[in-house]
Amino acid sequence: MAGPPTFATPPGFLGITRQDRGAAVCIAGLPLDIGTTNRAGTRDGPAAIRRASRMLVDGVHPQHWTDPRDLDIADLGEFELALGDIRASHALIETQAAECAHLVALGGEHGITLPLLRALARRLGGPVGLLHMDAHLDTWETNFGQAFAHGSVFFHAIREGLVEPRRMIQIGIRSPVDRETWDWTLGQGVTVVTAQEAHETTPAALAARVRAVLGDGPSYLSFDIDALDPAFAPGTGTPEVGGLASWQAQGILRRLGDLAWAGMDVVEVAPAHDQAEITALAAATMAWEYLALLAKP
């Protein structure tokens, strides 16, 4: 290892100090926590992910041989939110996201994805494909009695035409779900890969399936950290046993560099429930893996 020790790394993601929105790739923290989980929330998630990212700055991974810091990249800090007002916060997120050419968002709860997709679909002039890695479908019409919450994100995204359901694949699904929501999701044309199915195949096969679903059009990655088993990511609001291992998620993502990625988020890190930063480090690593794909020549 060369250079200053990691504890001397600046506070931006991967130590990035540039902050202007004119960068080709922008990172931003969206510390939205609307209190719909059963545990302490995600407001400190972006800060925890940035802190954990200091473990990733001492070199490059031989799987990629690329350094995300070589990108035209900036860390914008935290987006402005309207405390306690979901719809106003979503409007602020959408406006700020629209100013970024390519955004990697650090959550915050999963509700941030809806305004991010609104901004992206408007910028691209149409819906996108979606790789959604999660324990939960997040296609409930309402969640904890709220129309806009972290469990209803993709119900609204589909209904608003922000994503193409037949170009949408969900991996890691394993939470309890009512049959009506399950049937509605499949009926829209969404491909659902349960965690059990994922365990019975290989990351290479799953990556091939993702490529087949997403095709050549612009696509978005939404990574809920509870896609990982609580053994690998305990620091989240709604953990579900039987999830993906960290290596499985990495093995999938590392094989997707040939897709037309248009943006990404990693969400639902709840530091109050983390152990030794392993959840925050997993989230930082998934963002790092995504950026490494973008940095490939």
TrEMBL record:
<dbReference type="GO" id="GO:0033389">
    <property type="term" value="P:putrescine biosynthetic process from arginine, via agmatine"/>
</dbReference>
<dbReference type="InterPro" id="IPR006035">
    <property type="entry name" value="Ureohydrolase"/>
</dbReference>
<dbReference type="InterPro" id="IPR005925">
    <property type="entry name" value="Agmatinase-rel"/>
</dbReference>
<protein>
    <submittedName>
        <fullName>Agmatinase</fullName>
        <ecNumber>3.5.3.11</ecNumber>
    </submittedName>
</protein>
<feature type="binding site">
    <location>
        <position position="134"/>
    </location>
    <ligand>
        <name>Mn(2+)</name>
    </ligand>
</feature>
<dbReference type="GO" id="GO:0046872">
    <property type="term" value="F:metal ion binding"/>
</dbReference>
<keyword id="KW-0378">Hydrolase</keyword>
<dbReference type="Pfam" id="PF00491">
    <property type="entry name" value="Arginase"/>
</dbReference>
<feature type="binding site">
    <location>
        <position position="110"/>
    </location>
    <ligand>
        <name>Mn(2+)</name>
    </ligand>
</feature>
<feature type="binding site">
    <location>
        <position position="226"/>
    </location>
    <ligand>
        <name>Mn(2+)</name>
    </ligand>
</feature>
<feature type="binding site">
    <location>
        <position position="224"/>
    </location>
    <ligand>
        <name>Mn(2+)</name>
    </ligand>
</feature>
<dbReference type="GO" id="GO:0008783">
    <property type="term" value="F:agmatinase activity"/>
</dbReference>
<dbReference type="InterPro" id="IPR023696">
    <property type="entry name" value="Ureohydrolase_dom_sf"/>
</dbReference>
<feature type="binding site">
    <location>
        <position position="138"/>
    </location>
    <ligand>
        <name>Mn(2+)</name>
    </ligand>
</feature>
<dbReference type="InterPro" id="IPR020855">
    <property type="entry name" value="Ureohydrolase_Mn_BS"/>
</dbReference>
<keyword id="KW-0479">Metal-binding</keyword>
<comment type="similarity">
    <text>Belongs to the arginase family. Agmatinase subfamily.</text>
</comment>
<keyword id="KW-0464">Manganese</keyword>
<feature type="binding site">
    <location>
        <position position="136"/>
    </location>
    <ligand>
        <name>Mn(2+)</name>
    </ligand>
</feature>
